[in-house]
Amino acid sequence: MPFVPHSPEDVSVMLDAIGVNTIEDLFADIPAEMRPKSFALPKGLSEMDVCSRLEALSARNRTDVVSFLGAGFYDHHIPKAVDALSSRGEFYTAYTPYQPEAAQGTLQAIFEFQTAVCRLLDMDCANASVYDGGSALFEAMMMAVRATRRRKLVIDEALSPIYRTMLASYTSNLQLELVTVPHRDGLSDMEALKASVDDTCAAVVVQNPNFFGAITDFTDLFTHARAHKALGVISVYPVMQSVLKTPGEMGADIAVADGQSIGQPLSFGGPYLGIMTCTKPLVRQIPGRIVGRTQDVDGRTGYVLTLQAREQHIRRAKATSNICSNQALCALRSLIHLTLLGPEGLVRTAELSMERARYAAERLTALPGVELLHDAPFGNEFAVRLPVSAFEVVDRLTARGYVPGFPVGRYYPGMDNVLLVACTEKHSFEQVGILAEMLGGIL
Fold it and tell me: Where in the chain is the domain with CATH 3.40.640.10?
C-alpha cells in the first residue's frame, strides 16, 4: 500500500504514539482487496476551483432523459410550496422534540402526519416514521414476531426484491425462518401463501400493488392468517391508496409504505421515509416515536411524545428497535404534499398516472411480439414480455434519452425479456407515443 507522507517525521511520531510500526499495521484487520490502493491524495484546491470542478462533474449528468422507471420509486410532481414551507428554519434545523414546551410546532406537525397516513391507509395508529419503506417492513416483521412469539414469516416473492434483500440482511443473525412463496407470472400465488401460513407463522408479508404492478385483494389471505393467529403485513404505494382498497378494508394488522411518492424527490435514492401504521392492539409494539395530543392543567391542547419504546428511553434489551430514528423533515414534506393536494387532488394524481399507464400498455402491446405479463388489474405500472432482452432495450433507448423501464431479470432469473414500465401524471401522451415508436424501431 503506497503512502506518500508530507512529513515522514510527523508520521513516525504519530505511529510511535499509538504503538504501531507502519501505516500498513493500521489496516491489518481489513482484507487486502478492500483496502485503498493509495493514500497519495492530490493537492488541495481553492474554493473557487472546487466549485468549478464540482460544476463540471455535475454537468455530466443527463437532465434531459425521459424516464419510465418505477419499481417502488416514482417521479410525481411536487408542488413548489413543499420546498418553500419545509425549508423554513424552524423546521429545517429542528431536531428531536424532547422538550414539548419548546417544540409544540414540530410535535403538532408529526401528529398531523400520523393522522394523515392513518386516514390514507385506513388504520388505527401510526408512528412518526422510520428510515424508508424497507426499514418499515422489517420493523413490521419484528412487531409480528414479538406479538405472536413465533419465528416463521411467510413472504410473497412478488414483494419488492429490494425489500426482500433488506429483510434477509437485517434478519441474518436473528434465527428467523423466512419462507418465500414463488410468484406466478408476476402474480401472488394465493393458495400457496395460504398453505404456508400455519399455527407456527408469525406473519404473512405481501405488497399491493406488487413489484410487477399487479393489484390484489388480500382480504381472504388476512382472514386465513387471523384464523391461525398470525398477522397480516402489507406494503403499499401511498398515491395508489387513494383509489385502491385500503389495508384497513382488507383487514391488515400492519400496513407500511415508502413515503417517497408523496413529497420526496427521487434524489439518487434518498432521503425518504418509512410510513408505519397498525391496528390499536399492536400500538405498544410499534417502534420509534409516537406523538399524542393531550391537554394541560388549564385545558389547553398540547402535543407530547408518548409510547417511546426506544433504546434511548428504556433498557436496550426491552426496546422495540435500535434503528428507528424518525425522518421528521421528510414526514413534514409528505404532510404538506398531502395537505396541498387534498383527497381530490391525490385521487386525480392516481387517476392521471393510471390513465397514462393504460395508454402506454395499449401502445406497447400493439407492437409485434410484445404482450402483458399477466391480465390482472394494474395501477400506474405494468410488466410486458418482449421478444428481445429487456436489458438490451434499456441500454439502447437510454442512450437515446428515453429510459423505457426496469429490466425485471435483474432480480428475477429467467425473466430477462420482461420490462417493468411505470407512468406518472408527469408523462405526456406524446412521450408515451415516442417510447412506443422507439421500441418499435428496435423490434
Answer: 80-337
